[in-house]
Amino acid sequence: MPDTSCNPLDILDFWWTAGPQSWFKRDPHFDAIIRDRFSGCMEAALSGRLDAWADTPHGALALLLLLDQFPRNVFRDDARAFAGDARAQAIAAKAVDAGFDRAFPKDGRTFFYLPFEHAEDMAQQERAVDLFRRLGDQTYYHYALVHMDVIRRFGRFPHRNAVLGRASTAAEKAYLDDGGFGA
């Protein structure tokens, strides 16, 4: 049964109103707002109660925010930040294949592609790079290439090792000690 307390348009309105100045920076106040307003919706998305949203462009985008972006804000430095990744990747693949991403301007399309960039899988990384290249935004494309390089080198994101209880290899430790990218 769908969770009626969650509305995709409310989620999108919140995200667009916050804007790029809030999306990718560490801000405990912004994280707290997301936690207070959308924790229940994130849980509903993780449990599959909002899966019907994936059938429309705006619903799919809201679901991707709940599964891929909001947990990264609410659960920084915690394994739960990645709990929605597999669902987000599956939803993003279906949505992009259906052309839902093209219903939005460039900034909106980004959130259809980020689940692929967040994957610890080379095929998903290659898809992210291709999508961001086609998007034509050099900054997003650059970050997609950086993410893919990390997966090509290590097969995973070393900065996640500690919170996921994974032992780092010597090469990963050296990379992190040298200021290796962690997103």
From TrEMBL:
Pfam families on file: DUF924
InterPro entries in alphabetical order: DUF924, TPR-like_helical_dom_sf
This protein's name: Transmembrane protein
Species assigned in the record: Polymorphum gilvum (strain LMG 25793 / CGMCC 1.9160 / SL003B-26A1)
